[in-house]
Amino acid sequence: MKKSIYDMLSRKGSLPISMLTAYDYHTARAIDEAGIDMILVGDSLGNVILGYENTLSVTIDDMIHHGKAVCRGAKNAFVVIDMPFMSYQTSVEDAVTNAGRILKETNCQAVKLEGGQEYADRIKAITQAGIPVVAHIGLTPQSFNMLGGYKVQGKNQAAAQKLMDDARAVTEAGAFAITLECVPAALAKKVTESVSALTIGIGAGNGCDGQVLVYQDMLGYSDGFTPKFVKQYANLHEIMTEAFRHYKKDVETRTFPSQEHTFTISEDVLDKLY
């Protein structure tokens, strides 16, 4: 049965919520069948699917295209879709319009946007339009140029206080959940205890109400950089590469396709061909 926003909120302070990214139908199905609570169609698809250096080039049409596929595959999980760069920053009106497009065209359950107090008016307007919102504070990848790179956030007093203020502001604006990215564990736990919204951590310790990872990272899908906060549960890159090598060898030695993989035809039919 499809999980609802109330199912998620009921888990606050109790059983932690599991969340993974997905960008296509088959991955969404596998994640859903595993019983994962929430799926995020992240703008991380720019990095892990489309091959961009960062998330800034991702468009709202990209998010809708991949979001549709994920929502078709997720029969039970609660699906959240990222609002990409410049789809909400420009104005409250643009934020509501684009959030509405995402919800209407994909059939997801919520949208996610980056930023704290400065985007509280967007969150308020989107939620007033009947669209659930997940906020995202701490390390906000769309703002990596302003942050000076991908760094842990909230380490000094001023930065930690801003994170607390941001969390309270987005909760007050109506966000039902907050992604906390690359935040010291003790600070993330304090934020979690200070707001009524759910907190979903990524590099924020185990004191949050839930955890999210990019599925390619946790499956070892590529042989590139792996963030410190990622636990790899498999090494699919190695498994896939070895399978591809084996296939290449079989093709070149004509051991594939073998008899079991081919179709037959009557010799009488062949004899009558000219």
Overview of this protein structure:
The protein is an alpha/beta fold and 274 residues long. The chain contains twelve helices and eight strands. Strands 1-2-3-4-5-6-7-8 form an eight-stranded parallel β-barrel, surrounded by six helices. β6, α9 (185-194) and β7 form a beta-alpha-beta unit. α6 (120-128) runs parallel beside α8. The model has no long low-confidence stretch (mean pLDDT 96).
Architecture blueprint of SSEs:
Blueprint: H1 5-9, E1 17-21, H2 25-33, E2 38-41, H3 45-48, H4 60-73, E3 78-82, H5 92-106, E4 110-114, H6 120-128, E5 133-138, H7 144-147, H8 157-173, E6 177-181, H9 185-194, E7 198-202, E8 210-213, H10 215-218, H11 236-252, H12 267-271
Parallel strand pairs: 1-2, 1-8, 2-3, 3-4, 4-5, 5-6, 6-7, 7-8
Characteristic key phrases:
single chain; 274 residues; alpha/beta; 12 helices
**SSE string, helix = H, strand = E?**
HEHEHHEHEHEHHEHEEHHH
Instruction: Let me know the number of strands.
Output: 8
What Rg, in angstroms, do the CA atoms define? 22 Å
Q: Give me the oligomer status.
A: single chain
Structural class per helix/strand content? alpha/beta
Distance between the termini: 60 Å
Strand residue percentage: 5-15%
Low-confidence stretches: none
Number of helical regions: 12
**Looking across the biggest beta sheet, what order are the strands in?**
1-2-3-4-5-6-7-8
Largest sheet: 8 strands, parallel, barrel
Helix coverage percent: 40-55%
Average of the residue pLDDT scores: 96
General shape:
elongated
